[in-house]
Design a protein that fits this description.
It is a single chain. The protein is of the alpha+beta class and 164 residues long. The protein contains 3 helices and 5 strands, in the order ααββαβββ. A 3-stranded antiparallel beta sheet has the order 3-4-5, covered by helices on one side. A two-stranded antiparallel ribbon has the order 1-2. Helix 2 runs antiparallel to helix 3. It starts with a helix and ends with a strand.
Length: 164
């Protein structure tokens, strides 16, 4: 009878599935949340890159009189360019990425010299506009209490000013 009971206890698997689930669940949850976080990072990065490119293209089509070469100055409204980068709209709208503000977007002008063609009226100086941004990545895990904010999202786009 004792041998039978030992054999019966060794083949009992009623709690095996629960034990395996308890062992594998942390790994599965970690992989799942890492996948979600990675996908969210790529979405945010894509939105930032697209916004900066659109803003640089828009700024490049502004009237050339708003750009001073030499002098690397822009006399137009940077707020419109900043808002376009963040929201995709010239005025109003919501940021494409949470916590992205106009102050995170910079608009600078540089001048290339000895360029002919359409730039002859500006003394051969060709203005180039650069739109750049960098800010803290808004992690999805912040909602779960993970507040490590060392990851940055940044992008830059440059376009020659053609004007309209």
């Amino acid at each position: 009878m004792t041998m039978r009971r030992r054999f019966h206890l060794g083949s009992d698997t009623s709690g095996a599935a629960a034990a395996e689930m308890a062992l594998i669940l942390p790994l599965v949850l970690t992989m799942m949340f890492a996948t979600f976080e990675g996908a969210w990072y790529l979405v945010c990065e894509h939105r930032v890159i697209k916004g900066v490119r659109d803003a640089a293209r828009y700024a490049a089509r502004l009237d050339r009189s708003q750009f001073t070469c030499p002098g690397n100055a822009f006399t137009g409204s940077t707020a419109t360019i900043q808002n376009l980068a963040r929201t995709g709209k010239l005025t109003g709208g919501n940021a494409q990425v949470p916590n992205w503000v106009n102050g995170d977007v910079t608009v600078t002008v540089s001048c290339a010299t000895a360029i002919g063609g359409i730039y002859n009226s500006t003394g051969g100086n060709a203005p180039r506009v650069t739109v750049r941004t960098q800010f803290a990545y808004p992690s999805m895990m912040q909602a779960l209490g993970f507040t490590q904010a060392t990851v940055q999202i940044g992008a830059a786009a440059q376009s020659p000013v053609i004007g309209l």
